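Why do we bother with holo predictions? Because pocket geometry can differ from the apo form. Keep that in mind while you read this record for iron/sulfur cluster.
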Amino acid sequence: MIYQPQQYAIADERMKPFIDEQEIQRFLENTHPTKERVREVIAKSLDKNRLSLEETAVLINATDPELIEEIKQGAKTLKEKVYGKRIVLFAPLYVGNFCTNNCKYCGFRTTNRKQVRTTLSDEQLVKEVEALEENGQKRLILVYGEHPKYNAEFIANSVRTVYKVKKGNGEIRRVNINAAPMEIDDFRTVHEAGIGTYQIFQETYHHETYQSVHLAGKKADYNYRLTALDRAQEAGIDDVGIGALFGLYDWRFELLALIRHVNHFEACYNVGPHTISFPRIKDASEFAIVDKWRVSDGDFTRLVAILRLAVPYTGLILTAREPMEIRSEIMSFGVSQIDGGTKIEMGAYSKKEDNQDLDKEQFKINDNRSLGDIIDELLDKDYLPSFCTACYRAGRTGEHFMEFSVPGFIKKYCTPNAMLTLAEYLEDYATLDVKAKGERVIAKNLAEMEEGMIKQSLIERLDKVKAGERDLYF
Ligand code: SAM
Ligand code: SF4
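The structure, written out:
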């Protein structure tokens, strides 16, 4: 059954659907960039301005290899200039794969009889979290299918359960969720449980495609999904993540629609979404990718570089759906978060299972390295792995925006907190080799800091971490 919009609590104008396909098509069809114009747009972004739909279309329509290279270079420069070397790490934790929807591309879809359905009990959830903590994780995203079992109270309970688990020096300090859209009161319930970000992807912003891949269940209602984050805002959740599943329709359209979604947020709430995700569709149980809209590696890296320039102050999330080589390239364009040590089968963290069984999982992942191996690689490449959760816990919401726009914010908070959380990881979980590399990276970052109170205080706190204190942050 398709839900009718009038059945929902539509608070006001803000909850009206805002995607105008013709407007997006017009920008894509009528923008014919010259070299000069492309360079002007890149320069505007490097000057710390977000781009309009028309300007983003200029970058999308720039197909000359030389210009594509300049766009990628622009994204790299922006990252180096603004964000530095930090990469925040997290892990997904799948809580249950029962689902009443029928999304063609997803292993959990209701018609997939091969999928083995499980919901973690509280005890199993605790075991999973203990295993994650034993690896050094501090930030999780809980993921649920869409099913009456996974109502707001169930989700809130799982969030509270996760926060309570303390194994050794381990604890989860930020629990984000990716779950079905809810009504405002239900969003309040999960908000009160202390979630960090509420994340939901529109999958495709193209109506016809949306209807053709979401065949049944509540998710077949495009508008109810589109306005989910407005209801979340109404419930006080101001930290939200948007995304599109690339490979369902033309990536150019989806990219502009994502920017349109950001515009909607800025116009209505004065703040953009916290993060944008851009998963690329992968094989799943009883599903193989349709070639028509498959996004090649070249177009994928290009689209992420354009996204970075278009919304220079929004966090970008890149997941283990992508193989190591693609992850490495895209990270240099200013991705802010990646997952590490990812397992997406329910119960797999505690069972220490490495092989994927697609009939128990949502899709195929392509980077199954351990968290330790990923940190090792990041350190080799001079990145500063971070488990920082300070802003969220200190009530500083909108941190990506602050990182970008508040002078000195990164120097005062982000870099010191990245070093402190890395130092904890090195003390508690790293191999001797990784510990030595990590200490060198911390020393290098310290040497690059200006002398002054922050540096002094950071040195003192790093000593305290060595002496056994934990959870020190600015
Ligand atoms: N049931 C929730 C929902 O639909 O919003 C949870 C979503 S799911 C567990 C998280 C995301 O995985 C989906 O929003 C979708 O974008 C993505 N996904 C689903 N099937 C996929 C596939 N075959 N390859 C890559 N990503 C996929
Ligand atoms: Fe269910 Fe989400 Fe998968 Fe759709 S994408 S079948 S809603 S779990």
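Confidence is low (pLDDT under 50) at residues 1-10.
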